[in-house]
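Weekly structure sync, notes
Attendees: PL (lead), two postdocs, one rotation student
Agenda item 3: pending single-chain targets
PL asked that the sequence for the first pending target be pasted directly into the notes so everyone works from the same version. It is reproduced below exactly as submitted, 288 residues in total.
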Amino acid sequence: MKILLVKTSSLGDVVHNLPVASDIRARFPQARIDWVVEEGFADIPRLHPAVSRVIPVAVRRWRRALLSAATWRELRAYRDAVRAEAYDLVLDTQGLIKSALLARQARGKRAGYAAEAAREPLAARFYDAAYVIPKNLHAVERNRWLAAAAFGYEPNLPLDYGIAAAPLAAPWLPAAPYCVLPRRRHGAGRRRAADGHRRAGAAVGRRAPRRRRRHRPQPHRRRPGATDFLPVRRLAAGTHRRVCRRDGDQSRRRRRAADGRRGSCRDRRSRRSGFSPTAGAGQPPEAG
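Predicted structure, written out during the meeting:
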């Protein structure tokens, strides 16, 4: 069986789609899984051992230069790459017009969200089969429900993101436990993150944090021992021995989910609605 997953962006959405690959591999061990993803996030599905081939696209860059000859060459190259295989199912878990158009270029039956469940209802017109998935579920559960409906299995497998990265070996990596402290680029979120970083660093270093009464814009300063920005795959490999990690508002929820900690990741409304991929109550999602 050959399967194509279409989930192009953004970082959190791509991470949320990793359990779909795990579920498919668990149900169909011999399946070959390919993945269409935005070029900037291509390293994320590569972390999953069930993904055989990653097909990068550059929709964000293409839209800025739609009349460029180079853009059309890349579009043709994508079409040739995605049509090199005849897929048993092309599953679009994004539910956008752009992702539906990308899925449309592939050879095989195309499936996705029904109009009432898709983020952009028009996308459902490009699918051969569409399924109604409750909108009040968390994104991870919505993706898994959609895959279960499209492939005809019960969505009752344990949550598994399948991230596999070899430990990072780098000369600057400390031997002792360390912290990973991502920071925001600008705005009030950056100030809140900076305050939280100071508290986290103080907790690890057993020092009292210094309080700042008001924020003063400061240029970026490289601190002693700080390293350069890392690609996603090396960053994932470098978190094997971390002792703590503090994230921003959005990334905290997404990475808690990737670590298998439900926490605030689950939408409270999904608990009130009674929908659950492991509840066993009710019928599978309806096909549109």
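Discussion points:
- The two ends are 24 Å apart (CA to CA).
- The chain has two domains: 2-161+275-287, 178-259.
Action: rotation student to compare against the earlier draft before next sync.
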